[in-house]
């Protein structure tokens, strides 16, 4: 499809024609800035036609960074990010090793929004989230950059989320020691130094943990609640997604 890109207020807008003979409609992508929620039109010099654009980025409440590593559990990464975005939380998926596509634990390929290096420049984030998956969690546990991000997040009193095997990365980086956590049952014995719970989602202060793919929706909803500070948001999110 035809595309045009221009710079605006230190950001970047890409206009892409979807389809139409009589009208032009363009998808709008926003990076590094948000425009007010409105329908607007503009004429870009040299394009010779008027482009209709709309912003759905307004009324966002809070921000979250999902760190995507090779071998991550794809359901946990995608569902969590999706629920956060449905909950009006500005969510960035940052690739641990760069902006290239990541092969997840079941060979599903996921494209991050940008590299983790670029993502942190948009911070600080209200929440930093680690998807699980054994391979992905091991990669998170070995990363000095992830350690730096988590330590700063914890010291600042902001939210940290980890699901499935990802609490082992918290353990490796010394995050949240002494708090109550949960995880996938297979890594329970690797979480010494924590109080362990079998609950599907556990929140202890600013630390939110969960058990696995089957609890990813609940995990995402709890993160939205934590970021937005809104106890009523769960019902508002769960209904349209048919979650009981």
From TrEMBL:
<dbReference type="GO" id="GO:0006979">
    <property type="term" value="P:response to oxidative stress"/>
</dbReference>
<dbReference type="InterPro" id="IPR006287">
    <property type="entry name" value="DJ-1"/>
</dbReference>
<dbReference type="InterPro" id="IPR050325">
    <property type="entry name" value="Prot/Nucl_acid_deglycase"/>
</dbReference>
<dbReference type="InterPro" id="IPR029062">
    <property type="entry name" value="Class_I_gatase-like"/>
</dbReference>
<keyword id="KW-0963">Cytoplasm</keyword>
<dbReference type="GO" id="GO:0005634">
    <property type="term" value="C:nucleus"/>
</dbReference>
<feature type="domain" description="DJ-1/PfpI">
    <location>
        <begin position="63"/>
        <end position="225"/>
    </location>
</feature>
<dbReference type="GO" id="GO:1903189">
    <property type="term" value="P:glyoxal metabolic process"/>
</dbReference>
<dbReference type="InterPro" id="IPR002818">
    <property type="entry name" value="DJ-1/PfpI"/>
</dbReference>
<dbReference type="GO" id="GO:0010646">
    <property type="term" value="P:regulation of cell communication"/>
</dbReference>
<dbReference type="GO" id="GO:0005739">
    <property type="term" value="C:mitochondrion"/>
</dbReference>
<protein>
    <recommendedName>
        <fullName>DJ-1/PfpI domain-containing protein</fullName>
    </recommendedName>
</protein>
<dbReference type="Pfam" id="PF01965">
    <property type="entry name" value="DJ-1_PfpI"/>
</dbReference>
<dbReference type="GO" id="GO:0046295">
    <property type="term" value="P:glycolate biosynthetic process"/>
</dbReference>
<dbReference type="GO" id="GO:0023051">
    <property type="term" value="P:regulation of signaling"/>
</dbReference>
């Amino acid at each position: 499809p035809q595309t045009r890109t221009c710079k605006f207020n230190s950001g970047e807008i890409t206009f892409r024609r979807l389809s139409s003979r009589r009208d032009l409609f363009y998808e709008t992508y926003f990076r590094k800035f948000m425009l007010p929620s409105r329908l607007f039109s503009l004429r870009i010099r040299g394009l010779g036609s008027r482009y209709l654009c709309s912003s759905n980025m307004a009324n966002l409440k809070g921000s979250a960074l999902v760190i995507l590593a090779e071998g991550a559990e794809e359901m946990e990464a995608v569902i969590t990010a999706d629920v956060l975005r449905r909950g009006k939380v500005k969510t960035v998926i940052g690739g641990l090793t760069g902006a290239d596509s990541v092969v997840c634990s079941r060979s599903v390929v996921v494209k991050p929004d940008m590299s983790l290096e670029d993502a942190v420049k948009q911070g600080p984030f209200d929440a930093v989230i680690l998807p699980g998956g054994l391979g992905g969690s091991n990669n998170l546990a070995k990363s000095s950059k992830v350690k730096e991000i988590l330590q700063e997040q914890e010291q600042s009193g902001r939210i940290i989320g980890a699901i499935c095997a990802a609490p082992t990365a918290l353990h490796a980086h010394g995050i949240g020691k002494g708090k109550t956590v949960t995880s996938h049952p297979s890594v329970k014995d690797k979480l010494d130094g924590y109080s362990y719970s079998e609950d599907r989602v556990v929140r202890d202060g600013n630390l939110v943990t969960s058990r696995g793919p089957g609890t990813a929706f609940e995990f995402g909803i709890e993160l939205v609640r934590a970021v937005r500070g809104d106890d009523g948001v769960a019902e508002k999110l769960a209904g349209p997604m048919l979650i009981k």
